[in-house]
Amino acid sequence: MSVGLINRMRKPTGVNDMVLLEEVSENEIVSNLIERFHSDEIYTYIGNVVISVNPYRMLNIYTSEMLLEYYGRNRFELPPHIYAISSDAYRSMVDNNKDQCILITGESGAGKTQASKIIMQFVATVCGKGEDVDKVKDQLLKCNPVLEAFGNAKTNRNDNSSRFGKYMDMQFNYNGDPIGGVVTEYLLEKSRVVHQASGERNFHIFY
């Protein structure tokens, strides 16, 4: 286990799971999130939900070593992380043979696109190997830049804002290896093609 992870476990900042707050109120929730954010603890649980606060900078919490630390662990063994949610969903799918769904929601600039990339990277890392499997994993990972080119644009709040919603269906075999996927887009902001607000741009593909 990495030294950084051990230190975070020994000296947790605020409350990891806000179900355990002495007083569950808006002020207490916001105060706890702020306290953790200032210590670079951007993930916090509320039961089975993980809240993510976008730091707008790179943090050293997405290494291969960190990913493997979370794989197969109970979600509450380690500090809150999107890897823990990803591991829970993947292991439940493999062990219980049941479909899993991860819902990512938030306002513009909250980090939804980045969160989906992190989840896909987690799955690509922990599933099996082989020429066919690697080909599918490569296709799944490389579809994001294409989607962003045609569906993302610079806004006044976010340089890479998704101007559409998407439902990504990843398909696996009985071993837990990806065999394909389907991306369904909806609510594409088509009006942006002919008109953009002041200071904003058209979809990336036009540049």
Give the helix/strand layout.
Elements: H1 3-10, H2 26-37, E1 43-46, E2 49-52, H3 64-70, H4 82-96, H5 112-126, H6 131-151, E3 152-153, E4 161-162, E5 165-172, E6 178-186
Antiparallel strand pairs: 1-2, 3-4, 5-6
Helix pairs in contact: 4-5, 5-6
Report on the structure:
By secondary structure, the protein is α+β, with helices and mostly antiparallel strands. It has helices at residues 3-10, 26-37, 64-70, 82-96, 112-126, 131-151, and strands at 43-46, 49-52, 152-153, 161-162, 165-172, 178-186. The protein is 38% helix and 14% strand. The longest helix is centred in the C-terminal third of the chain and has 21 residues, at 131-151. The model has no long low-confidence stretch (mean pLDDT 90).
Q: Notable features of this structure?
A:
alpha+beta; 6 helices; 207 residues; single chain; two-stranded antiparallel ribbon; two-stranded antiparallel sheet
| Overall average residue pLDDT | 90
> How far do the termini sit from each other?
44 Å
**What order do the SSEs take from the amino end to the carboxyl end, as H and E?**
HHEEHHHHEEEE
* Strand coverage percent: 5-15%
Q: Strand arrangement, largest sheet?
A: 1-2
Number of H- or I-type helical stretches: 6
In the predicted model, the low-confidence regions spanning at least 5 consecutive residues are none
Globally, the shape reads globular
Largest sheet: 2 strands, antiparallel
- Secondary structure: number of strands: 6
Helix content: 25-40%
Structural class: alpha+beta
* Radius of gyration over all CA atoms, rounded: 19 Å
